Amino acid sequence: MSQSEEKFEYVSSATLPTRWGQFRIHGFVETDTDQEHVALSYGNWEEGEVVPIRIHSECLTGDALFSTRCDCGFQLEKALQNIVEHGKGILLYLRQEGRGIGLLNKIRAYNLQDNGLDTVEANEHLGFDADLRDYGICKIMLAELGVKRVNLMTNNPKKRAALESLGVEVVNRTPIDHGITDDNRHYLRTKTEKLGHEFDPHLLK
Ligand SMILES: Nc1nc2c(ncn2[C@@H]2O[C@H](COP(=O)(O)OP(=O)(O)OP(=O)(O)O)[C@@H](O)[C@H]2O)c(=O)[nH]1
Fold this sequence. Notes:
Elements: H1 3-6, E1 8-17, E2 22-30, E3 35-42, E4 50-57, H2 60-64, H3 72-86, E5 89-94, H4 103-114, H5 119-125, H6 137-144, E6 149-153, H7 157-165, E7 169-174, H8 185-195
Parallel strand pairs: 4-5, 4-6, 6-7
Antiparallel strand pairs: 1-2, 2-3, 3-5
Helix pairs in contact: 4-5
The site of guanosine-5'-triphosphate has 23 residues, from strand 4, helix 3, helix 4 and helix 5.
């Protein structure tokens, strides 16, 4: 086991009925920070099978409070729906709120965006990089769930690169262009222009 793998521990799992179907929830902890993460799995797969997955970073405002400032909540719902429709899949829900700056710093960044900065400038103004996320735990989560080959639901090339660097084979990428609203179009354009997100430009006009 590498040093970074030793930082994460599988804790327990349980059934998790949802509006879309019955998942299992699996709990993991980062032992040096006590940060908790979860994975939701649905259905069964054979060894070596390509499994649809989404890596979703925590967004309290979008995922739980119905915010339309971002597309996070819409993507979360769509990913769970896709998984159930497909009959199998995994959602890795990583507790790295605000691209890693935390909830209250995200609110500070929103305040700066209310005053004209974009999402990248706001992070930088607060002294953070635009994106501080680390995907190392995905390796442990996917290994625990018996998955080595995936179809990744994302528009973010950094997630694909991160999985590949962890030795997970990304066989396909499925775009997840869901939840574009008048409130988040500018934010999504900035992510395309400055963070390399792969959005169909026609959707952002
Ligand atoms: N710092 C900061 N974080 C934000 C802002 N808006 C949303 N977020 C965070 O951005 C992250 C988005 O996570 P994801 O939807 O998993 O990832 P993504 O990079 O958008 O990639 P895909 O959705 O997979 O294409 C969440 O942690 C949100 O809390 C913002 O304006 N500033």
